[in-house]
Every structure is written in C-alpha cells, then in structure tokens.
Design a protein that fits this description.
By secondary structure, the protein is mostly helical. The chain is built from six helices and no strands.
C-alpha cells in the first residue's frame, strides 16, 4: 500500500509539473534570468503549492498522531547550516542554472525521451552516489 501511495503522489507531482509548464527548461531558465526576459511563473507555481501545502500540513500535524500508512512522522531534526549543506546547495544551483532542470521535472520529462534529460539523470545518479561515498568515508 505504501508503494502505491508513493506512486500516486509522484504521479500527481509529475502531472502538476507538466500542467504548470515547469518541465520546460526554457521556462525555468527564464525564471532564473532576472536581468533579461524574466518569467515569474515559477514563483507563482511555488507560491500556489505552498498555499495548498501549508494548511494541509498544519491540519495533519494538529489532528493526527501518526501518518495513515506509517507508525510515525519523519520530520528532520537537524537544522544546522553546515559545510555539506552549503556545498550541496551550490552544486544543485549551478546544475539548475546550467540545465534549467531539477530532479522532479527531469524524471517527469523522461516520457519525452529527450537524450539530454537522460544525461542529466545519469549525472544526478552519479552525484548521489558520490555524495553517499563521501558521507560514508566521513563517518
């Protein structure tokens, strides 16, 4: 049941990204281009998502002691801004700025069979493997 719920959530996320146009790298690059032909639509999509998410999160946290399909909520406990977080954010930002794609839209766009997206996904997987390797050597 958990896997099915995760599939439905991912499917809904992908459909939302596609309908809003956020799977188009040109839309994302236009959002990041604040000195040129800036397109604020991404900000409105993110703002709309927050307007839907925030009240739902508040209601769930207030009225449920645990999620429907798990024994407990998994809420991050680490709130420190450390070296790993800053480096990860910089690498993510550079990749997003160069390609106009981040992980969610890249996976949602796989059905389009664009070869450059497969290159992005391969690079993303290599990056995750490298980060795990560095983290495991650090511990």
């Amino acid at each position: 049941m958990n896997l099915f719920c995760a599939f439905l959530a991912g499917l809904g996320f992908g459909i939302g990204l596609t309908i809003s146009g956020m799977v188009d790298p040109l839309v994302v690059l236009a959002f990041l281009d604040i000195t040129g032909g800036w397109n604020p639509s991404l900000a409105f999509v993110m703002g709309g998502a927050l307007l839907v998410f925030a009240p739902g999160y508040w209601l769930i946290k207030r009225h449920l002691s645990h999620p429907l399909f798990s024994k407990s909520f998994f809420i991050p406990t680490i709130n420190a801004v450390d070296r790993s977080l800053v480096i990860g954010a910089i690498v993510f930002g550079i990749g997003w700025g160069i390609s106009g794609v981040c992980p969610g839209p890249a996976i949602a766009n796989v059905s389009g069979l664009e070869t450059k997206l497969f290159g992005f996904i391969v690079a993303m997987i290599i990056g995750m493997m490298l980060a795990n390797h560095v983290r495991s050597n650090k511990e």
